[in-house]
Amino acid sequence: MGAVFASGISATAQEVNPVSPELTPKLRDLLRKEMLSVEEASKQILSALIAGDDARVADLAQQIHDSFILQQSMTPQDKQDLMSVVPKHFVTRDRAFHQLAASLAEAGRDGNRARQNEQFGQMIDACSACHALYATDRFPKLAE
Ligand code: HEC
C-alpha cells in the first residue's frame, strides 16, 4: 500500500488508508457483512442495556466477539491475501475491538450494569476510531 491518502486524514504518523479498496472482492464482502451484523447487534445491545437484560447483553456481545472476520469464513489463502494488504495496526484494532466485546459479554454474565455501560461505550468508540483511520472512503465525515 502506498501513502497516497495518508496526508490530512489523521493526526497520527502511522500510515492510514481506507482498507476496502485493497481487499479481494470476497474479503470485502465478508468485511461488509460482518460490519452490518455488528451494527445490528450493537443496536440490540443498546435496547438490552436500557432494559436491564443482562443475559441478552452477554449473548449479543458474545456473538460480536465470535464473528471475528480474521478467524471465520476464511481459507488460508484468504488469510494470506488479507495479511498482505491490511496494515498491522488494522489487525491490532480489530483484535482489541473483539476483546472489548468479550469484556462486555463478561460484564453481562456478571450482571454488572455499570461495567456493561462502560464497555459498551468503549466498544462504540472503537467503531468510529477504526473507521476514522481505515474507512474514510465509506464515512467521509470522519476525515473532516
Ligand atoms: C478494525 C476496524 C473496524 C472496527 C473496529 C469497526 N469497523 Fe466498521 N468498518 C471498517 C471498515 C474498513 C469499513 C469499510 C468497509 C467497506 O467499505 O468495504 C467498515 C464499514 C462499516 C459499515 C458499513 C458497511 C457497508 O455495507 O457499507 C458499518 C455499518 C460499520 N462498519 C459498523 C461498525 C460498527 C457498528 C462497529 C463497532 C461496533 C464497527 N463497524 C467497528 C472497519 C472497522
Q: What does this entry look like structurally?
A:
This protein is mainly alpha-helical and 144 residues long. It has one domain (24-143): Cytochrome c/b562 (Four Helix Bundle (Hemerythrin (Met), subunit A)). It has helices spanning 25-50, 54-66, 76-85, 88-110, 113-134. Helix 1 runs antiparallel to helix 2 (54-66) and helix 1 (25-50) runs antiparallel to helix 5 (113-134). The longest helix has 26 residues, at 25-50. The protein starts with 24 loop residues before the first helix and ends in a 10-residue tail after the last helix. Residues 19-20, 28, 31-32, 35-36, 38-39, 42, 90, 93-94, 97, 123, 126-127, 130-131, 134-135, 138 line the site of heme C.
Tag the structure with descriptive keywords.
about 140 residues, mainly alpha, Four Helix Bundle (Hemerythrin (Met), subunit A), 5 helices, globular, binds heme C
Structural class: mainly alpha
What sort of overall outline do the alpha carbons produce when their principal axes are compared? Answer: globular
One letter per element, helices H and strands E, the order comes to: HHHHH
List the domain count as a whole number: 1
Query: In the CATH classification, which architecture applies?
Result: Up-down Bundle
Terminal-residue CA separation: 22 Å
What is the CATH topology? Four Helix Bundle (Hemerythrin (Met), subunit A)
Main pleated sheet: none
Protein name: Cytochrome C
GO molecular function: electron transfer activity; heme binding; iron ion binding
Organism: Roseovarius lutimaris
